[in-house]
UniProtKB/TrEMBL annotation:
CDD domains: CYP503A1-like. It comes from Pseudocercospora fuligena. PANTHER family: CYTOCHROME P450 (PTHR46206), P450, PUTATIVE (EUROFUNG)-RELATED (PTHR46206:SF1). Heme binds at C491. This is Cytochrome P450 monooxygenase. Its cofactor is heme.
Length: 549
């Protein structure tokens, strides 16, 4: 009877948590965190004094603490909504040395000074690991499911194939984005200003453009599939967010309940639509493996091809292939949507918005004209101002307030120089939100300067056009620009994501007038993530006459 009562209590708690609109409600998040505070106390006491990594961390300088009762617990609770403020305040006091940052229901982070980042970013994958951290953030096997998490080869397949084939897919993606804008950013016949929800509409457009490459033309043009796919991705992100409020030992119990509530219905709907398409694609591929004439150029096909090469019949199960396809969408769509909304809010809330937009339009018209009027990878690569406007927003409002996070996996630890050896199990990160606002790296760092990164590229002569120009692009990471992570484990999807976002911004400035109905809404911080207010609005109208793009 006692066990049944505990299960009922757990179900009740999870049902309450899964109804939250993460990350929309800061006050509810605090109450939720307080509700599991007792578990956090136990975890902090037990792990904080007996693990080797914790003993080492106790010797470091900690930030975010106050002299108060239950200081460990309360410091962790403050980190849920206050990580940005804690990191910024500490960086302003001291840029040097190592600092331990508490994390609610998770391992603390060892923040490195800027002069140590190169040492971290050059470490090989078998010494420091990002995948462990990302798996925890996303809810691990509860959002990705254990049978594909054991060997997530689909992520590597897409990384290798997609980056090589960007030139072949540019025109198709641009066409889908244009169709998405015509559907989501409609205006009346009188062409008056129309108010739209930025997150909702941009998310739909991004989903459509990306799935021309991920799912293929048939599923990309199925609006019901795209709708349920969006709900699945949102459910996965919310599941991961909620699970990270639970102690680790409770996640195997709570995870399936939360995932079932938030992800099961959209998953079943996606299955109903996509499984026949996938089964048909598998059969056609098996019957004509050597016939390359009708082979589709999309992630679905790349995954199927890899499944065939594996010689494991279980991998050719259509449901497993679908879940791999959904996993690709989970890691790709949410971050691109957040970044897109951020750069639109930053650009159009700037006091120099009119000047910036005119400069962007001039560049788009000029580059398109020089390249014959059609969209190609070469055209996108030459949009220096478009690239800069997005990169500048990523600098100012990166998705993560701490970047380049790694967990030390080498048994005897890793050496970061000056006699510092970090033991296995410790998580290391960069205070990226503070580095991106450091006057040592950027002039007027709190100002949105859309052309900050394009001025030098535009003035380079042709002889220096190669590596110098590329080094200023948004896909190039460095110790002072960490929005895509950095080093060997920088975001592998950044090349496709940057191309899609540049195509979107180019289409917007060429075809729409945009403004904000008021001041830029503040972003909402949740642990080490920062996202725009999902209620953020844009006011739009078609340009007269609209550009031919």
């Amino acid at each position: 009877m006692l066990r049944e009562e505990k299960l009922a209590t757990l179900h009740s708690t999870v049902n309450m948590l899964s109804s939250l609109d993460i990350p929309h409600s800061p006050s509810v998040l605090l109450k939720t965190s307080a509700g599991v505070c007792l578990s956090y106390v136990v975890m902090s006491v037990v792990l904080g004094y007996f693990s080797a990594q914790a003993r080492w961390l106790r010797k470091q300088e900690w930030i975010g603490y106050r002299k108060e009762w239950l200081s460990d617990v309360r410091a962790g609770l403050r980190s849920v909504l206050g990580t940005r403020a804690i990191v910024m305040a500490n960086y302003e006091k001291s840029k040097e040395g190592f600092h331990a940052l508490p994390q609610f229901m998770s391992k603390p982070l060892l923040l490195l000074p800027p002069n140590k980042l190169r040492d971290l970013l050059q470490k090989p994958d078998d010494e420091v690991n990002l995948y462990i951290v990302l798996t925890e953030w996303l809810g691990g096997k509860h959002t990705m499911e254990s049978d594909i998490m054991r060997d997530p080869f689909h992520l590597g397949v897409v990384k290798n194939q997609l980056n090589r084939k960007l030139a072949l897919i540019t025109a198709d993606v641009q066409a889908e984005l244009a169709l998405g804008f015509n559907q989501q950013w409609q205006v009346g016949s009188d062409n008056e200003w129309r108010t739209i929800l930025a997150f909702e509409t941009c998310g739909s457009i991004i989903r459509k453009g990306a799935n021309r490459v991920f799912s293929g033309a048939e599923l990309c043009h199925n609006e019901e599939f795209l709708k349920h796919l969006g709900r699945y991705v949102e459910g996965a992100v919310r599941t991961g967010s909620i699970l990270n409020l639970f102690p680790k030992w409770m996640r195997p119990l709570a995870g399936p309940i939360i995932a079932r509530r938030l992800m099961r219905k959209p998953l079943d709907a996606c299955r109903q639509i996509a499984l026949p398409v996938i089964q048909d694609r598998v059969q056609k591929t098996l019957s004509s493996v050597k016939d390359q004439v009708h082979v589709s150029n999309d992630a679905l096909q790349w995954v199927i091809d890899q499944c065939i090469k594996s010689s494991d019949p279980l991998e050719l199960d259509a449901d497993r292939i679908l879940r791999r396809l959904l996993g690709i969408n989970v890691v790709a769509l949410h971050t691109t949507s957040v970044t897109t909304v951020n750069f639109l809010l930053d650009l159009y809330s700037s006091p120099n918005a009119d000047t910036y937009v005119e400069g962007l339009r001039e560049e788009c018209s000029r580059v398109l004209r020089q390249c014959g009027g059609g969209w190609s990878k070469g055209v996108v690569n030459d949009l220096f101002r478009i690239d800069s406007a997005i990169k500048e927003s990523m600098r100012l409002h990166a998705i993560f307030t701490v970047g380049a996070i790694r967990e030390v996996t080498k048994k005897d630890g890793v050496d970061l120089g000056d006699g510092v050896r970090v033991p296995q199990g410790v998580r290391i990160a960069a205070p990226s939100v503070a580095i991106h606002r450091d006057e040592h790296f950027y002039d007027s760092p709190y100002e949105y300067d859309a052309f900050r990164f394009s001025r030098s590229r535009e003035h380079l002569d042709d002889e220096k056009a190669g590596i110098d120009k590329r080094s200023q692009g948004m896909v190039t990471t460095s110790e002072s620009f960490l929005a895509f992570g950095g080093g060997r484990q920088a975001c592998p999807g950044r090349f496709f994501a940057s191309q899609e976002m540049k195509l979107m911004l180019a289409y917007i400035v060429m075809n729409y007038d945009v403004k904000l109905p008021g001041p830029r809404p503040q972003n909402f911080d949740f642990k080490h993530a920062s996202v725009p207010d999902p209620r953020s609005q844009l006011m739009i109208r078609r340009r007269e006459p609209p550009a031919k793009t």
